[in-house]
Write a structure and sequence with these properties.
- Chain A: Keywords: ATP-binding, Cell membrane, Ion transport, Iron, Iron transport, Membrane, Nucleotide-binding, Transport.
- The complex is a heterodimer of chains A (about 270) and B (about 350).
- Chain A has a domain of about 70 residues.
- Chain A contains 9 helices and 12 strands.
- In chain A, the strands form 3 sheets. Chain A has a 6-stranded mixed β-sheet, sandwiched between helices. A 4-stranded antiparallel β-sheet of chain A has the order 2-1-4-5, covered by helices on one side.
- In chain A, helix 6 links the parallel strand 7 and strand 8.
- In chain A, helix 4 packs antiparallel against helix 5.
- The longest helix of chain A has 16 residues.
- The chains are: A alpha/beta (about 270), B mainly alpha (about 350).
- Chains A and B meet through helix 2, strand 6, helix 3 and helix 4 of A and helix 1, helix 8 and helix 9 of B.
């Protein structure tokens, strides 16, 4: 084995207060992969992502990132290695895009150090890559949902981490902006980063992921390449949805088409 | 450790948007502080020169340099100057506390008034004045201790953030009835005396100025340091944690410092309302920077309280209003306007 996996979970159990959400989860996420977590609501995919981000602490098991136990990292070291875009995030009133993005440099700065040209470069690059430079001086609240999400992505990029975690990064965006965000993630993946995202849309997951992780009731039921993982049986089993799966006419990746359901008998003809 | 490859085109050693933004923020903050400090200085000179015995500006200088008429010396140095100093100190303490509270709770309405500090301070004053007869402890200590005790209880029960504010509202409701009960049991003169403490007043203040000023010079720089970490908490707990910020510890430290600063303010002038709420709001509006602006808020709070106290002394000729009444009316009106304006903008 040459390179260690980007992320390795070893029998991880985690939850909130006394409610266990994920039990005994083991998983390897390959370095340089674009891994997508899918599963029905409440299956524990966000919980798992937040645990990898060290926002939640597992009650049992251990997690290693780039071959090193997460507990061996200092806060600052970890923040330089793993970045997280949380779900449904809101910025304080009056904050501009650049102001937000430069805060992403926090783990690279010490309490007394001045703003370096390296910090400046990272912020400039993050703004450029996400296409947010042109409205860098505008207040976040004035922007469209898609622009705002790109600003948050820019903040994440300014953090300059080899591993990126994204919790439903396309929620609340219209379809064009969803693909804009996903294309950007694909670009970041192509540039060598490990991208791990929670997505709801199975077709998007199948199209962008190199690896799918299917969760149900806090356990992993399947992992692998979308074309082998995504089958009508799995969708019926995990999501309770009868569907047909056909190769996407554009990309050839599996695409999910739900079967029409018969109307309920109580809804008789009018 | 693998490092991510560079992204996008790299630019030359020009001034990046990050540094430009930081410079602009610093410039605005420094400029705002300078302007407000100059305004405060002007106000202070005006306050020193005016009063029941108007003093020509020309007579001020000899007194300040150690000479002048003894009677005038007494009025200026023993009466007016300590009062001005207390107004500035208390205002700065409350302004700084407000900035910390708002950032730590991620709530623009987070302020010592709202976590029950003010009502607790009132209870402290009432207990000292009415139950302990005000002999062993001065009401100033009572108010500071009462407020701090309630805020600490709110912290223990409510933790941080939104829940802290809700618990504060609950505790305030509880103590308001305790205060009302204490007042019904009191002698009329005692009750009247206590009522002034409940509003917050600078009348006859100044005795504790060195102590207050000492506390402020220790606490305010600490607050500035703590506020640096709070900047990241403003983007949300999860985001801050992922950036390596010890969120719980930072927030506890900030709230504890805010409580201490409020105690300084309340010990000096009683529970003066709305300065802690309005100063950070104004600071944000003027500097157009989204960050806990401790220094700017403190400077603005000092100017606000001094101005309010001057207004309180001459709004009704021949009568000195408690400064808390003025800040209450001005601050309450400001809050109502801001909220109405903000919400109208939001529903559009």
């Amino acid at each position: 084995m040459s390179t260690p996996p980007a992320i390795e979970l070893d029998s991880v159990t985690v939850g909130y207060d006394r409610r266990t959400v994920c039990r005994d989860v083991s998983l390897r996420i390959a370095d340089g992969s674009f891994t997508v977590f899918i599963g029905p609501n409440g299956c524990g995919k966000s919980t798992l992502l937040r645990t990898i981000a060290r926002v939640l602490r597992p009650s049992e098991g251990r997690i290693a990132v780039l071959g090193r136990d997460t507990r061996a990292y200092s806060r600052r070291q970890y923040a330089r290695t793993v970045g997280l875009l949380p779900q449904g995030i809101e910025a304080p009133a009056g904050m501009t895009v650049t102001d937000l993005v430069l805060r992403g440099r926090h783990p690279h700065r010490s309490a007394l150090s001045r703003w370096t040209s390296q910090d400046d470069q990272a912020v400039t690059d993050a703004l450029t890559v996400t296409g947010t430079a042109e409205f860098g001086d505008r207040v976040l609240a004035e922007l469209s949902g898609g622009q705002r999400q790109r600003a948050w992505l820019a903040m994440l990029l300014a953090q300059d981490t080899p591993v990126l975690l994204l919790d439903e990064p396309t929620t609340y965006l219209d379809i064009a902006h969803q693909y804009e965000v996903l294309d950007l993630l694909a670009e970041l993946h192509a540039s060598g980063r490990t991208v791990v995202a929670v997505l709801h849309d199975l077709n998007q997951a199948a199209r962008f992921a190199t690896d799918l992780v299917v969760l149900r009731d806090g356990r992993i039921t399947e992992t692998g390449h979308p074309s082998t993982v995504l089958t009508p049986d799995l969708v019926a089993d995990v999501f309770g949805l009868r569907c047909r799966i056909v190769p996407d006419p554009v990309t050839g990746t599996p695409a999910v088409f739900p079967e029409p359901t018969r109307p309920h008998p109580s809804l008789g003809p009018r | 450790m693998t490092t991510a490859p560079p992204l996008g085109p790299t630019l030359g050693p020009t001034l990046g948007p990050g540094r430009r933004t930081l410079r602009r923020h610093t410039r605005r903050a420094v400029l705002t502080c300078l302007v407000v400090l100059m305004l405060s200085a002007g106000l202070a000179v005006g306050a020193l020169a005016s009063g029941r015995y108007a003093t020509p500006l020309a007579d001020l200088w000899p007194v300040l340099t150690g000479g002048g008429d003894p009677g005038l010396r007494f009025v200026l140095l023993e009466l007016r100057l300590p009062r001005i100093g207390t107004a500035l100190t208390v205002g700065a303490a409350l302004g700084g506390a407000g900035a910390l509270f708002q950032s730590a709770s991620r709530n623009p309405l987070g302020s010592p008034d709202i976590v029950g500090f003010t009502v607790g301070a009132a209870t402290g004053a009432l207990v000292v004045l009415l139950v302990l007869d005000g002999t062993s402890l001065t009401p100033a200590v009572g108010t500071a201790l009462g407020g701090a005790a309630v805020a600490a209880t709110a912290l223990l029960l409510g933790g941080t953030g939104q829940r802290l504010i809700l618990v504060g509202i609950g505790l305030s409701a509880l103590l308001t009835s305790v205060n009302a009960y204490l007042l019904t049991r009191a002698e009329v003169t005692d009750a009247q005396n206590a009522a002034v403490w409940l509003v917050g007043s600078l009348n006859g203040s100044g005795a504790h100025l060195p102590l207050l000023l000492g506390a402020l010079t220790v606490l305010l720089p600490l607050a500035v340091v703590v506020a640096r970490g709070l900047r990241l908490i403003e983007t949300g707990d999860e985001k801050a944690l992922s950036l390596g910020v010890p969120v719980r510890r930072q927030r506890l430290t900030a709230t504890a410092l805010a409580v201490a600063l409020t105690a300084v303010g309340v010990a000096g002038a009683g529970p003066v309302g709305f300065v802690a709420l309005a100063a950070p709001h104004l600071a944000r509006r003027v500097t157009r920077v989204a960050a806990p602006l401790v220094t700017t808020s403190a400077v603005l709070g000092a100017a606000l309280l001094l101005a309010a106290d001057q207004l309180a002394q001459r709004l009704i000729p021949g009568q000195q209003l408690p400064v808390g009444a003025v800040t209450g009316v001005l601050g309450g009106g400001y809050l109502a306007l801001v909220l109405a304006w903000t919400w109208r903008g939001r529903s559009r």
